């Protein structure tokens, strides 16, 4: 026979209501009692009935996680970390992919709001106005977008961009290009602002090419414009765009890093395996996933009435093989 909540209460020496609170509101139970109940529950093989608990508490113990493109290597580490963090807190995560489509994103949010206690939006493509309207249904936390009144986790891509521009300047590059991302992307705007400021400070000429699809195909399609820009150093929206650009330049008889230096963003596995290995800006995606879950659960427990939190995570440049001194293949590297 299935183990019941009464079995756990009897074996733990506590009331049934204490067992219920241990699983539905553990902060209301002393640490000693909570640990005893959880240990007994584990030994007996007891699993709480989520549907019954939802009826009692009004909580589903489910969270929604919406990403722009699940095939992009940027997102899986964030998803995995968020799921693990939620699981430790007795929550499950429903993951949805918008395929970079803001209309689909809105549809998914409206659907998930009926089934979850809160929603994480990662690099959303919706306007802030629409997000502010939708948040009336359940608490939201946003990753890589500033939205008034919402807790936010930002990966400070501007910090990495400034380091990337300074790296190109130190290698003797005087004309650089920025391959921006899709319209409506917070990351694109941050990169643009940081690259413009850093280029001005370093006395570099900056060409901004936008918008671009945040994919290898987007980088491939931009190769002709990059080749014609006169730039010798290129900073790309992400690693996928950088890899597509390298392929497109190769098709035009240009080598990386011999003719052009290329920098990506994300420090994804494809960039580390590529030849040349990609110089890139690392993004703390796993840390962002964990922090976003904690902020969302805080909002859920506060009834979405708490003060919004802004968490900013550091980024940094990783120098590999796709950047070198300005000039043709065979030019000596700086000492």
UniProtKB/TrEMBL annotation:
InterPro entries cross-referenced by the UniProt entry: HTH_LacI (IPR000843), LacI/GalR-like_sensor (IPR046335), Lambda_DNA-bd_dom_sf (IPR010982), Peripla_BP_I (IPR028082)
Chain ranges of the HTH lacI-type domain: 3-57
Xref: CDD domains: HTH_LacI (cd01392), PBP1_LacI_sugar_binding-like (cd06267)
SUPFAM superfamilies: lambda repressor-like DNA-binding domains (SSF47413), Periplasmic binding protein-like I (SSF53822)
Statement: the UniProt record of this protein carries the keyword Nucleotide-binding: no
Recorded superkingdom: Bacteria
A Pfam family of this chain: LacI
Entries under PROSITE patterns matching the protein: HTH_LACI_2 (PS50932)
Record's keyword annotation contains Hydrolase: no
Signal peptide: none
Example of a GO MF term: DNA binding
Stored PANTHER family: HTH-TYPE TRANSCRIPTIONAL REGULATOR GALS, LACI-RELATED TRANSCRIPTIONAL REPRESSOR
UniProt name for this protein: LacI family DNA-binding transcriptional regulator
Organism: Planomonospora alba
